[in-house]
Amino acid sequence: MKSVVVKFLGLAGAAVLLAACDRAAEVDEVFEVAVSAPFTSLDPVRTVDANTLQLHLNTYSLLFRQRRNGEVEPSLAVSADSPDRKRWEIVLRRGVHFCGVAGDREVNADDVVATLTRAALSPNSRVSWVFREVEKAGGKPRIEKLAADRLAVYFREPVDLPRYLTLPQLGVLPAEVIDRKLSPTESSMGSGPYRISRYGPDGVELTTCAGGFPKAKIDKVRIRIVRDRQVAMGMIKSGQVDAMELDFSQWRQVTTEKGAPKDTRLVYNANPADFRYILFNTRDPRLRDPAARRALNHALDRSKLCRGPLLNFCRPVNFVSAMEGVEGGNDLYQPEKAKQEWQALASPPREITLLTFSNEVDRTVAQWVAREWKKTLGLEVKVKVMDFGPLLGTLFGGKEFTAATLWVQPLSDLPEIWFLAWQPGDMPPRGRNISRLDDPRFTALFNELRQRGRVQGWLSQKVEAVLEQDPPAAPLYQLTWAWLVNKDYELPVGRIKTLELWEVTPR
């Protein structure tokens, strides 16, 4: 086309039209993504929703990252060493620069010390528990700068700090913004692959952060907030967006009815870090007996759930089959054993309330669970639908509840999944019904399992047996992660649920 322009319009006209063509090409290089939920905060320590954490993973550098194979690898840090797992010395990568607020200066130890201290002390921090065993100096966490590229963190008890530092809430901020209220109207504050070049109620535009880490593969990304998923489906059919995540109803449409729209392909992965459990309140007298929780586990046919109501939108899991590299399992389903255990209880519950999120998947699952428990155990189950915030507040705020569906998205912290299904006897502060991640039993077993590789051997079987004996939760399934993506782009299919946009590569 360019040669035709030159031939008929001459050089002057050609210059104008060629510039227009170049601008069009530049527009075409923008990777357009449609998401259904708005972003909640540019402050990483306050964030819990996956959609906003996805944004943080693209704009804030983490000290360590969990890759698709489940391994923890250095990122902004190049190493973290500790002979006793109490005093950790962290060495930073040189040459990584902030974009925006910090004036493109290099990230240094002052920034990391300020970030970790704020995460430990902020009343709004979702990750303050990471630092509850940290030593104190002058009333503050003992997190000390040793050199421009080096710092130390001191704990009273042994912890596996690098895997905690993969939490997306611990993205590193410039020290000069730590004491300010982080506003979405400000320019970018991170040193990740992208900087935020536009932030508004309709979405976010990301542009490559030249000095950030890791490096972006796409120059510009536009994330549009499209609350109506059918509208988003229309946008991808018309080519207005290049990718959209599918919810369960759209998965059903694409896989069982009309198929993927023209010029798109379905990208899915059966092993994302997204699991569903039913969490039991072990403080409830009716569920205090481990036999009651075992019976509830044994009464659920997880394979039937995935094949039937969820149309293969998931794969069944037991406890350790939620780990990377272990095949999904349905061995917990033992209906006759469930009946025997239930009948042997001194005072079995006659009725319980099952809390669940309001989305279609969780409601479908909760109703199915209620039917299965009624059929096998004669247990009456009242399903109570709650919004995201109130349900999490009920679970983690120490309020009374009986049981609740719980999705676990440790976006970069695999051990949190496994430890959710660990002994609940050692309750963390404020009545939270999830065990401590730094429990020495868990740490020792997890490290041993990791050293032995991902094959299911005697250690996996031992852990499974322990969890089955005294289960704090009923593992259900592992969700399928599904996207519709324009055929012009390659999207690496990975274990982490979040869309790491810098790994989107033009075909």
Question: Overview of this structure, please?
Answer:
- With 507 residues, the protein is an alpha+beta fold.
- Among the domains are: 44-177, Dipeptide-binding Protein, domain 1 (Alpha-Beta Complex); 275-479, Dipeptide-binding Protein, Domain 3 (Dipeptide-binding Protein, domain 3, Roll), CATH 3.10.105.
- 31% of the residues lie in helices and 22% in strands.
- The protein has 14 helices and 23 strands.
- It has helices at 2-28, 50-59, 109-121, 161-164, 229-237, 248-256, 290-298, 302-307, 335-344, 360-377, 388-396, 414-420, 440-452, 458-469, and strands spanning 31-35, 64-66, 72-74, 77-81, 87-92, 136-137, 140-141, 143-147, 150-154, 194-200, 203-208, 220-225, 243-245, 264-269, 275-280, 314-316, 351-357, 380-386, 403-408, 473-479, 481-486, 489-490, 505-506.
- The chain has a seven-stranded mixed beta sheet with strand order 10-11-12-1-13-21-14, with helices on both faces. Strands 16-20-15-19-17-18 form a six-stranded mixed beta sheet. Strands 4-5-9-8 form a four-stranded antiparallel beta sheet, covered by helices on one side.
- Helix 7 (290-298) runs antiparallel to helix 9 (335-344).
- It is globular.
